[in-house]
C-alpha cells in the first residue's frame, strides 16, 4: 500500500550519541506518531539504515566513531531518496555548508526545540513526492484508504459508502495527493471527455463527497485524520494530507 501524509507511515532513524538528546527526540517523535529507531554511532546507524525501511535520518555530526559528514555522504550514496536532517553543535557556516554538500537536506543547530524539529519534518515530508502505487494498489492518505481495485473507501477501519461518481472523483484525486487537478481532467476521467452536460455536476459531486466523509469522521468513536479537499478557484481541486496535530514542545540542548 502506498501511504502519504500520515505520520504513522514515517520511519525515522536517529543517529545521536548524547543520551539526553536521543531520549528526548525519540520520545517526542514517538508521541507524535513516528516510528523511531535510535542508535548512538555512525557505524551502527549505517547498518540500521540498510536493515530497516527508513524515510528520515536525524544525524548528529559529532559522533564518537565517525565524522557525521562522512555518515551523511554514505547515507546519500546508499539511499538516494531518504530525507537527511543533520543535528549539529557546529554553528560555523562552513560546517553547515559541508554537511549540505555531503547530501543532507536540512540542518538544526543545537539547542533546538522539538516543536521546530517537528515543523521541519512536516514541511519536508509534504514536499516529497509519494512513491507511486502499483497497479490496483490501495492508497492511504491520513486515515483515508482508497482501494480502486475493490472499489472500497475506508475511514480508519470503517467502510464509507459512496455513490459511483463520488468514488471515481475521490480515486482520481487520491492518485495525485498534494497536486492540483484541473476541472477539465476531472470531468474527462470521472465522466467522459465528450461530456456535454454542465460542469456544475463536478461541484455538486465534490460537495456530496465532502459531506459523506465528514459525517463518517464525526460519527467515529476515535479522532480521525481526514485529508482536505482544497478548491482552486478557476482551476480545479487538490487533495491534501491532513494537518499534523499534537506536537510537543520543549528545548533540546547540546
Radius of gyration: 21 Å
Mean pLDDT: 83
Number of helices: 8
Helix content: 25-40%
* Unreliably modeled segments: 1-8, 244-251
Order of helices and strands: EEHEHEHEHEEHEEEEHEHHEEE
Helix/strand-derived category reads alpha/beta
The percentage of residues in β strands lies in 15-25%
Query: Main sheet: which strands, in order across?
Result: 1-8-9-10-11
Tell how many strands the DSSP assignment holds.
15
* Main sheet characteristics: 5 strands, mixed
End-to-end C-alpha gap: 39 Å
Global outline: elongated
Structural key phrases:
disordered N terminus, 5-stranded mixed β-sheet
What this model shows, in words?
- By secondary structure, this protein is an alpha/beta fold.
- The protein has helices at about 20-30, 40-50, 70-80, 95-100, 115-125, 165-175, 185-190, 200-220; strands spanning about 1-5, 10-15, 35-40, 55-60, 85-90, 105-110, 110-115, 140, 145, 150-155, 160, 180, 230, 235-240, 250.
- The strands form four sheets. The protein has a five-stranded mixed beta sheet, with helices on one face. A five-stranded parallel beta sheet has the order 3-2-4-5-6, sandwiched between helices. A three-stranded antiparallel beta sheet has the order 12-14-13.
- The longest helix is centred in the last third of the chain and has 19 residues, at about 200-220.
- Mean pLDDT is about 85; it is low at about 1-10 and about 245-250.
Amino acid at each position: 500500500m502506498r501511504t502519504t501524509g500520515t505520520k504513522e507511515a514515517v520511519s525515522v532513524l536517529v543517529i545521536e550519541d548524547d543520551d539526553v538528546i536521543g531520549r528526548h527526540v525519540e520520545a517526542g517523535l514517538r508521541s507524535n506518531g513516528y516510528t523511531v529507531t535510535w542508535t548512538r554511532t555512525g557505524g551502527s546507524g549505517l547498518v540500521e539504515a540498510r536493515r530497516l525501511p527508513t524515510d528520515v535520518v536525524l544525524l548528529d555530526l559529532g559522533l564518537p566513531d565517525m565524522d557525521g559528514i562522512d555518515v551523511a555522504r554514505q547515507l546519500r550514496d546508499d539511499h538516494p531518496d531518504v530525507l537527511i536532517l543533520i543535528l549539529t553543535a557546529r554553528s560555523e557556516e562552513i560546517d553547515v555548508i559541508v554537511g549540505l554538500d555531503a547530501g543532507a537536506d536540512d540542518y538544526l543547530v543545537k539547542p533546538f526545540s522539538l516543536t521546530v524539529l517537528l515543523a521541519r519534518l512536516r514541511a519536508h515530508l509534504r514536499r516529497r513526492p509519494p512513491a507511486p502505487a502499483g497497479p490496483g494498489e490501495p492508497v492511504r492518505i491520513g486515515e483515508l484508504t482508497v482501494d480502486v481495485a475493490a472499489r472500497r473507501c475506508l475511514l480508519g477501519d470503517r467502510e464509507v459508502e459512496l455513490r459511483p461518481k463520488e468514488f471515481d472523483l475521490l480515486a482520481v484525486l487520491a492518485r495525485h495527493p498534494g497536486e492540483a487537478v484541473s476541472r477539465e481532467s476531472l470531468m474527462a476521467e470521472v465522466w467522459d471527455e465528450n461530456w456535454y452536460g454542465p460542469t456544475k455536476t463536478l461541484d455538486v459531486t465534490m460537495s456530496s463527497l465532502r459531506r459523506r466523509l465528514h459525517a463518517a469522521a464525526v460519527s467515529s468513536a476515535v479522532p480521525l485524520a481526514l485529508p482536505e479537499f482544497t478548491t482552486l478557484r478557476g482551476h480545479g481541486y487538490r487533495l491534501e494530507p491532513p494537518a499534523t496535530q499534537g506536537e510537543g514542545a520543549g528545548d533540546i540542548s547540546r
